[in-house]
């Protein structure tokens, strides 16, 4: 179950200016902060990065900025290229390949209720469009239904498809995929329950809260590999509590507030995301200042 892409990745945030334009300096600030946390790599241009609120041209620019900011670091870069249009997805994929990214990923097409056959052929075309390995994505909450093992397995068998980001809580499907595809990388996408995904067969994680608690997730992954289950539970409890706080105020605004509290000038979220009120800020800041949390964010 070894795979060069396996490991823990931050679903990278986007840095915006105060007027919400993409801001290169703030993007670099975020990258620099995340690189110090010892993660395997960065997942660039995904939902955590507010890509659904960005144009394709902005995503081209972001890919270039992040690649330049990571030069000299042994950091794997996965470019999320899933767009409403397959043509735009392929354009982003080829740009990432040209820049030297390590892999691609894409949400399944989700603008309409596409059939399993249409989703299969979407991924087939995208995988064939470059020489980079492709990570597919199972996220029932975005597409409105759960994919079957047979549907996902058929896509994983396509040439050029290296693995899956699995953001469903149906761990039976995850464990079946691991059994059928022992050489594929399976990233678990639920930060607050990563340990359950790892037990079921995931050999990596991609998450929003890794931007803030990256060191903790690296330690959790190492403890899981070493069979230190009690330590994994303790670390997972910190992760779960943080996610609970974020759910109270909004995940992306809450993560950006967290980074600003830690001294990272990352800018705001784009509208229609809202700026947190003072009442919303206090529980997050209190959490980050807890004695058992502070070592993981310092």
TrEMBL record:
* GO MF: N-acetylneuraminate lyase activity
Its GO biological process annotations read: N-acetylneuraminate catabolic process
Keyword Cell membrane present in the record's keywords: the answer is no
Q: Which Pfam families match?
A: DHDPS
Identify the residues that bind pyruvate: 48, 206
The record's active-site residues are 137, 165
Give Gene Ontology CC terms: cytosol
Q: Which PROSITE patterns match?
A: DHDPS_1
Q: Give the family from UniProt.
A: Belongs to the DapA family.
Q: State what protein this is by name.
A: N-acetylneuraminate lyase
Q: Which organism is it from?
A: Aliiruegeria haliotis
